[in-house]
C-alpha cells in the first residue's frame, strides 16, 4: 500500500526463531503525528516488532518502510540516523553524570566539525538541552546526578535522551512500568506533547494509560494482528476480550 500520509508502512512482516513464528504476516501503518499503542498477551510478538523496526532483529520476510527507506536492509545505526529512536524497558541513563550531561552526550554532534561554527552551536545545544529538560519535567534537576533521580524521572530522562536527537519515529517499550499513578499521568501528558512533532509507537499493558495516550491501538496475538482501531473499538471487539482484556 503506497500512501504518502504514512510515515511507517509495515507489510507482511514475519520473523521465525528456530521455526517458531514470533511475528507472522503482520501489517500496520503509522501516520506522522499519531501515538500507536500495541497491546496483547505475553509472547504475542510486541517487543519483537520493535526489534524488527530498529534493526536489532532481521525479518525473515516482509517490508518496513520509513519515510521511503526500506529498514529491513539497514543496520541499526543507519536506522537511528534515518530518524527512528527506541527506548528499552529498563532505564539506561548514565548514573554518574548529571541530567545536563546525559542530555548533552545524546545530542547528535556529527555535523559540528568546523571550529567557527562550534561556538554558536554550543549555545544552541545548551538551549536545546534546557528545552528538553523542561519538557521531561527535569528543568530543576539539570545539575543533579542521574543516580539521585526516582525510577520515573530516569525513564523521563531516557525519553529526553531520545528527544534531543529529534527522531521522527519514537518507540517506547512499557514506559510507565514501575511508575506511580502521578508519574503515569505526567508521562501521558509528556507523550501527548511529544506527538505534536513526531509519531510514537508504545507497547503497554496499563489500559488506563493506553486510553490517555492512544490515537489508535493495534492488538497482537500469536504474531498476528488480531484487531485495530480506536481504544473503544478494540475494547468492544469480542476477539480482544477473549484473548486479552477478559483475563
Ligand atoms: N531472539 C529470540 N530468539 C528466540 N525466540 C524469541 C526471540 N525473541 C523473542 N522470541 C520469542 O518470540 C515470542 C514473542 O516474544 P515478544 O517478546 O516479542 O512478546 P511480547 O508480546 O513482547 O511479550 P511480553 O508482553 O511478555 O513482553 C516469545 O515466545 C519469545 O520467547
From TrEMBL:
InterPro entries: AAA+_ATPase, ABC_AA/LPS_Transport, ABC_transporter-like_ATP-bd, ABC_transptr_urea_ATP-bd_UrtD, BCA_ABC_TP_C, P-loop_NTPase
All residue ranges annotated as the ABC transporter domain in the record: 8-247
UniProt xrefs under SMART domains: AAA
Entry GO MF terms: ATP binding
Keyword entries, A-Z: ATP-binding, Nucleotide-binding, Transport
Pfam families to which the protein is assigned, alphabetical: ABC_tran, BCA_ABC_TP_C
Protein name per the record: Urea ABC transporter ATP-binding protein UrtD
Originating organism: Paracoccus onchidii
Gene name of the record: urtD
Amino acid at each position: 500500500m503506497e500512501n504518502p500520509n504514512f510515515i511507517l508502512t509495515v507489510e507482511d512482516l514475519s520473523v521465525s526463531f528456530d521455526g517458531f513464528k514470533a511475528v507472522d504476516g503482520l501489517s500496520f501503518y503509522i501516520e506522522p503525528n499519531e501515538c500507536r499503542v500495541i497491546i496483547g498477551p505475553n509472547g504475542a510478538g510486541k517487543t519483537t516488532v520493535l526489534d524488527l523496526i530498529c534493526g536489532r532483529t532481521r525479518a525473515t520476510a516482509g517490508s518496513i518502510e520509513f519515510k521511503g527507506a526500506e529498514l529491513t536492509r539497514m543496520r541499526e545505526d543507519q536506522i537511528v540516523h534515518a530518524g527512528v529512536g527506541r527506548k528499552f524497558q529498563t532505564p539506561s541513563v548514565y548514573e554518574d553524570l548529571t541530567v545536563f550531561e546525559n542530555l548533552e552526550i545524546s545530542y547528535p554532534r556529527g555535523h559540528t566539525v568546523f571550529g567557527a561554527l562550534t561556538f554558536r552551536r554550543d549555545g544552541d545545544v545548551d538551549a536545546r538541552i534546557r528545552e528538553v529538560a523542561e519538557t521531561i519535567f527535569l528543568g530543576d534537576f539539570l545539575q543533579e546526578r542521574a543516580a539521585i533521580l526516582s525510577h520515573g524521572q530516569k525513564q523521563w530522562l531516557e525519553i529526553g535522551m531520545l528527544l534531543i536527537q529529534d527522531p521522527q519515529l519514537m518507540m517506547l517499550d512499557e514506559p510507565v512500568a514501575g511508575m506511580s499513578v502521578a508519574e503515569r499521568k505526567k508521562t501521558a501528558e509528556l507523550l501527548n506533547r511529544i506527538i505534536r512533532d513526531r509519531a510514537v509507537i508504545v507497547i503497554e499493558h496499563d489500559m488506563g494509560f493506553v486510553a490517555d495516550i492512544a490515537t489508535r491501538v493495534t492488538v497482537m496475538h500469536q504474531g498476528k494482528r488480531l484487531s485495530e482501531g480506536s481504544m473503544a473499538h478494540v475494547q468492544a471487539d469480542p476477539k480482544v476480550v477473549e484473548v486479552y482484556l477478559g483475563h
